[in-house]
Design a protein that fits this description.
single chain, about 600 residues, alpha+beta, 8-stranded mixed beta sheet, 24 strands, about 25% helix, globular
Length: about 600
């Protein structure tokens, strides 16, 4: 190849025995056998074992060489001794007998080892991310990410999409998360915003007469971190299509996801055709609009049971009289589970901030009865009604929660996953995709009690436009949808509102005047006024897709240089202070809080 190597560290095999070769890479591991020194040399492609005898003049140099130093090794390919082969390596049947070495770069003492896959504190891993990324598992994750993105590009082009780039410096949006603001030197007192998503631009591309757009788009949101969300920036497959309905978008995305996940994983696809679950049904059955459909547990509504005279559980009955609801989860044939199983679920619920989960098990001697802390409060008649509602059977157990709907759904959606994991009901070898559809256009903000957009404000409402009931806006449904896989929301999308007069009406419901809309969305509303096609799209998150394919639970495991929980880059020490000269150029003065 060149002066540094004739081959990579995965190229050589038995057909190369006797060849003079040169390899370059990192000193991965060293094993001293007294008169022999074995080295594992590693590069991006793989590992090759090298060996040197103690009579070689380079023996003492290698003996003192620190791990992760970069070496250039020249020698002959030799067959490994019988019984010492390593079938896990492509080069596992050969080794290089070292004749000459050159230290290209000497490493200092390592703050974290590269050999092995030990778990180290996140702050150390992020500060020395370049070392962390040398570890085999992390290296494979990032290579997987690159291959996934390349595959997506190929498939999108085959599906008739063209890739366009949208601006990074744009205007601030009043909807969504907090913006990252960039001061303008040439326009004192004014700011650009980094795009939370190319939402308006991709719609403008459709208005401009292009038909199918996609982009691997960087997005910037000043949000708090969590396991499936990076603080600061992330990437998404942004796509938009003209002259389409909701099902057209679904068809494209399903084709892509099926090919993508089958190509990069051996796990089964639970559904070849992704189920469409209405938003209200998702909340009713699973307590969330991000259900993990590998989990067979569903929620049941038991509110009416606690209005019966023969049910004596007064705590729940009094709450129901005041407007609370009761929901529950039925677990199949858990009568022989130890008391600790049930108590641990109750204890766990309290740790999540709930008041706990009541429970009982259905049994039968001569009659149907309930066993457990609250079992005595139900007679045979009420239990038969519970069985009718929930389709429970003798031997099943029921966990119950009572309170406000939002609180109950939150704890039971978490409990559904917790119980399923404890009972080992979730099939880890599957990907279960679904669409959540029919989102409400509006919702009531819990803090302000005002009507706000529940999803994307640029969405098209469902139904005949002239018959929309703006007097009852909470009843309006929109062509908005989420795609979910194994309980992870990959993306939200929508069929867009391309009618200016309708947009003014919808925004007025959320408290925006016509002037507000014209000021905040001038580019969009102006473009729609000159003839806009019906259009729609979606933007699945690249980071979350790779996280699922790599079987990781944290997005930082599939991101090259992520920030920590406090949105800090410990490696590059960002965010950093800037000089007063730079601030002056931007007409900015910092007013520090005392």
């Amino acid at each position: 190849m060149n002066k540094y190597r004739t081959h990579t560290c995965q190229d050589l095999n038995e057909t190369d025995i006797g060849k003079q070769v040169t390899l370059s890479g990192w000193l991965h591991r060293r094993r001293d056998h007294g008169n022999l020194l074995f080295l594992d040399l590693r590069d991006h492609y793989g590992i090759t074992q090298c060996v040197i005898e103690n009579n070689n003049k380079f023996f003492q140099i290698l003996e003192k060489c620190k791990p992760e130093s970069v070496l250039k090794i020249t020698g002959k390919v030799s067959k490994r001794a019988t019984g010492t082969e390593n079938n896990e390596l492509k080069t596992g049947k050969i080794e290089i007998v070292i004749e000459k070495i050159e230290i290209l770069s000497e490493a200092k003492e390592l703050p974290i080892p590269v050999f092995g896959e030990q778990d180290y504190p996140e702050d150390i891993r992020l500060k020395y991310r370049f070392l962390d990324l040398r570890r085999n598992e992390m290296h494979k994750n990032i290579v997987l990410r690159s291959k996934v993105i390349s595959f997506i590009r190929e498939q999108m082009i085959q599906l008739g999409f063209l890739e366009y780039q949208t601006p990074i410096l744009t205007s601030s949006s009043p909807e969504g998360a907090r913006d990252f603001l960039v001061p303008s030197r040439l326009n004192p007192g004014r700011f650009y915003a980094l795009p939370q998503a190319p939402q308006q631009f991709k719609q403008l591309i459709m208005v401009s007469g292009f038909d199918r757009y996609f982009q691997i788009a960087p997005c910037f949101r000043d949000e708090d971190a969590r396991a499936d969300r990076s603080p600061g920036e992330f990437y998404q497959l942004d796509l938009e299509m003209s002259f389409v309905e909701q099902e057209d978008v679904f068809e494209v995305v399903e084709k892509l996801m099926l090919k993508l996940f089958k190509n990069f994983s051996s796990k089964k696809m639970t559904f070849e055709k992704f189920p469409r679950i209405p938003y209200d049904e998702a909340l009713k059955k699973y307590g969330t609009d991000k259900p993990d459909l590998r989990n067979p547990l569903e929620l049941c509504d038991f509110t009416e049971i606690f209005k019966r005279e023969d049910v004596k559980f007064d705590i729940f009955k009094k709450l129901v009289q005041k407007g609370s609801i009761v929901r529950g989860i039925v677990t199949k044939q858990t009568k022989n589970r130890p008391r600790s199983f049930f108590d641990n679920i109750d204890k766990w619920a309290k740790e999540q901030g709930a008041s706990g989960l009541a429970y009982f098990t259905i049994e039968k001697d001569e009659v149907i009865k309930a066993k457990g802390p609250i079992g005595k409060f139900f007679n045979e008649s009420s239990l038969n009604e519970i069985i009718k509602i929930s389709k429970a059977k003798v031997g099943d157990s029921i966990f119950l929660a009572c309170g406000k709907e939002t609180e109950i759904l939150k704890i039971l959606s978490l409990a559904r996953d917790k119980i399923a994991k404890d009972l080992e009901l979730i099939k880890d070898n599957q990907f279960a995709f679904c669409w959540i559809v029919d989102y409400p256009m509006f919702e009531t903000d819990e803090k302000t009690n005002k009507i706000v957009f529940s999803h994307n404000p640029f969405s098209m409402p469902q139904g005949e436009l002239e018959k929309l009931d703006f007097q009852n806006p909470l009843g309006i449904r929109a062509y908005q949808y989420d795609i979910v896989c194994n309980g992870v929301e990959l993306s939200s999308g929508a069929i867009r509102n391309h009618i200016p007069d309708l947009m003014y009406k919808l925004f007025s419901v959320a408290g925006y005047s016509k002037k507000d809309v014209n000021d905040k969305f001038s580019g969009m509303i102006n473009a729609l006024s000159f003839g806009a096609p019906p259009h729609g799209g979606i933007a699945p998150g690249i980071d979350r897709i790779v996280m699922l394919l790599a079987s990781k639970e944290n997005i930082r495991e599939v991101t090259l240089f992520p920030m920590n929980q406090n949105a800090q880059d410990l490696m590059m020490q960002a965010p950093s202070k800037v000089e007063d000269k730079q601030l002056k150029e931007l007409n900015i003065k910092i007013d520090k809080k005392t």
